[in-house]
Amino acid sequence: MEEQHSFHQKTYMASLRSILFPAFWGFSSIEGLICFIWFLNLPLSESERAVFLGYSIIRLIALAVFGLAVVYCVIVFLKTLVQSEQSRSMQAAIQIWIRQKDFSATALLSCLFAWALLGAFLEIFLNPSFFPRSILYAFLYTRIRPVFLWTVLVSAQAFITILAGGWYQLKAREQPEMTGKRIRTAAAGFFLLTGGSLVLWTIYLTSPDQFINPDGFILPAIASLAVLLLGLVFILQRSEV
Amino acid sequence: MIDALPNEELRKTRSTFRSGWPLTILFGGIYLLMLAWYGISSYLVEPLVDPNNVDRARLLPSIFGFGFNELRWMPAWTAAVCLAIIAGVIWFIHHRPGRAAEVLKRAGDVLYNRKLYLLAVSLACAVIFFLFRSYLISDDTLHFMNWMPHQAAHGITHVRFDEMLESNLHFELYKLANSLWGWDVQFTYNVVSCLAGGLFVYVLLLYSRRLWGDKSLALFAFLVSGGFMQLFFGDKENYTLAVTLVLIYFYFSYKYLVRESALITPAFFLALAMTFHLEAAFLLPSLFYLTVVELNRRRYFTAAAAWVILLSLFSLVILYFLYRGATWESLRDTSWGLGRGGNVLFNIVFPSGLMIFSRLNMWILIFPGIVFLLPAVLAGGLKLDHLAGHILTAAVPGLFFSWVWISTIGFYSDWNLFSMPMFPVVLLTAVSLFRCRDFPLKKEIVAGMTMVSILATYTWIIHNHYLLVG
User: How does residue B9 score in pLDDT terms, banded at 50, 70 and 90?
Assistant: First the structure.
């Protein structure tokens, strides 16, 4: 029965990967082509730095590298559609690499996630309609945005594909992280600090005039308590179980 | 100790050299070149008229500039006597290696036998730091001496976004000490800096012991041979406490890697370091490295919790100062890290011309031993384990920052700004040097470099103490 379940699970995962893998390359190709055309349509470089067709050296190098990356995605996508055997061998190679290089695979996933998060962060904080002062950086962000956004999209898609396709196994820990009492204390400290921060920020943002009190002591007291409890948390978390 | 790391996390890099003598020639050559450079710079080449401004300087004084010529404050005959003593110590190490190692081991065993001895040594160091406190005054110090009494008299909270708790803590301590004992701004900074130095020495002794066991005192001596130690000799700017917290961060990062601490602890100290000085944000990639290790151990809650706590703590400190009456505009517009009301990218410039030598001088001033970094890496000192990985992810952004960030008051005066980002480079140099393969005369060369660096560094430091005399 268990063997049958395991067999069904493996078959299911194999089918899922056969969809996810070409889908990843397909979406990356389409997004890449759109971003490449967007990049081509950016305003030309300043005349004194223009080398070829109105583009500067840096822009030409970026175009070349970006173009090659998009072409690579398109080629791999087409191969996954036409040559299924080659697609399966690529998937197997990725699987073997992830299994053999656990730390590197974790690092890759972390970097993909962090890059996607950075992209989301910059899209908000470099948007002049949300933060007018970010207009100071518009000259740079406008130029790098097509390439940057594409790498962010590819990172997010790669992260989801690797996890959803089961290439990276979210194995359970070998040992429990903490005992019951320490879990509760740690959680209490964590939620007090983060919850307290959210509450205080909400109060400040909604009623700043009532919040500010240069001679007051309540807020420092609350903050001190939170930090003390945090100290308790990390003292209790000093050693592994 | 680093050898306690699991085998599967250790991978030896192949040394470039097959036998040891090429390494001896390389390291020995660099050491002798440094000796010669110190001598020429200090006694044969005229110094830069203004070490903070190389725009109109000539090439030769720039090349032999302030990173190399601090021995000039010592009469040549005194320097010769010191070098003779150094030569004698090297002779002793060479001809009595067992005895030398025995002396070092015994000293370490006595010192580390009880925490009380470590505390006593740290306190003694704090007293020495105070006795030789610096009278070097930079532009920033002049500002503090003008602002703080005025702000204290008018009930204004002193805080700068780039150095929130560091600036505010100094200010509050000045107010208290001035009201109780009549201390001025300079003296308050002197005392805080020296006390921080005591704590720094204590943690560094512990860290050295964990890294290198019975050779910990040799490692400790190498680490404190750099000019960044001037921070603890009464430096009157806002970097001292932050650098101490950075060291504590590295210490707990090591303990985390050998599974004696949770990730939350180094994350907490990094958050604290950032609230003391925003410059510590260059260490975020190294915390990211530790997070990858944590995820690799499949501990997802603590990996996320560490970052949430870092952000929460940092935001709470900002909120605290907003509560005390600071405004977003005043915090943002005075911050160099946020562009000081303008574009922060204007603070980042790749050096060219004589500016390159100025930066190299600054690096050598902060840590002369950095000349051994590249050779140590080539000699297989950069082993691909988590300790090296962590320090490397801290050192690379630190080195990059030190290479491109503009100093508005000149690199000689801003040596303390660059001490913090250079600190992981100092650690990387020491760890790589001590871990690289053995070669003939290695102990002698490392000891010689340590002693010469100490001579140059502490000549400068002591000179800064006597600035007001004569």
Answer: very low
CB count in 10 Å sphere of residue B173: 15
In sequence order, what are the residues at sequence separation of 6 or more whose Cβ sits closer than 8 angstroms to the Cβ of residue A83?
Answer: none
Closest residue of B to A139, CA-based?
Answer: B343
CA gap B194, B129 in Å, rounded: 6
Which residues lie below 8 Å from residue A163, measured CB to CB, with a gap of 6+? A109, A170
For the CA atoms of A236, B164, B136, B151, the dihedral, rounded to the nearest 10 degrees, stands at -130
Position B292: which residue type?
V
DSSP assignment of A190-226 equals HHHHHHHHHHHHHHHHH-HHHH--TT--HHHHHHHHH
* Local confidence band at A237 (pLDDT 50, 70, 90 cut-offs): low
Question: Mind listing the pLDDT tens digit for each residue in B256-312?
Answer: 999 888 888 899 899 999 999 999 999 999 999 999 999 999 888 889 889 988 998
Which of A109, A190, A213 is the closest to B305 by Cβ? A190
Residues A228-238, mean pLDDT to the nearest whole number: 64
Secondary structure class of B461 (helix, strand, coil): helix
- Residue partners of B444: CB distance under 8 A and separation at least 6: B90, B93, B94
Residue-by-residue DSSP string for B288-352: HHHHHHHHHTT-HHHHHHHHHHHHHHHHHHHHHHHHTT--HHHHHHT-TTTTTTS-GGGGB----
- Binned at pLDDT 50, 70 and 90, residue B84 comes out as very high
Task: Give the B-side interface with A, CB within 8 Å.
Answer: 155, 157, 259-262, 264-265, 268, 288, 291-293, 295-299, 301-302, 305, 308-309, 312-313, 315-316, 319-320, 322-325, 339, 342-343, 345
CA angle B97, B103, B108 (to 5 degrees): 125
Q: What average pLDDT score do residues B206-228 get?
A: 94
Residue A48: what are its φ and ψ, rounded to 5°? -70, -20
Q: Is the CB of B308 less than 8 angstroms away from the CB of A194? A: yes
The vertex-B197 CA angle with B370 and B204, nearest 5°, equals 55
Residue B210 Rama label (left phi>0; alpha psi -120 to 50; beta): alpha
Q: How far apart are CA B29 and CA B45, in angstroms?
A: 22
- Residue B108: the pLDDT is 93
How many percent of chain A have pLDDT more than 70? 80
Q: What is the pLDDT of residues A17-36, one digit of tens each?
A: 888 999 999 999 999 999 99
Please answer whether residues B138 and B237 qualify as being in contact, where contact means their C-beta atoms are separated by less than 8 angstroms. Answer: yes
From the number of C-beta atoms within 10 Å of its C-beta (0-12, 13-18, 19+), residue B15 rates as middle
Q: Which of B159, B261, B323, B343 to mutate: most A Cβ within 10 Å?
A: B323
Mean pLDDT for B34-58 is: 88
- pLDDT tens-place string over residues A40-73: 888 876 667 777 777 888 888 888 999 999 999 9
B176 phi/psi in degrees, rounded to 5? -65, -50
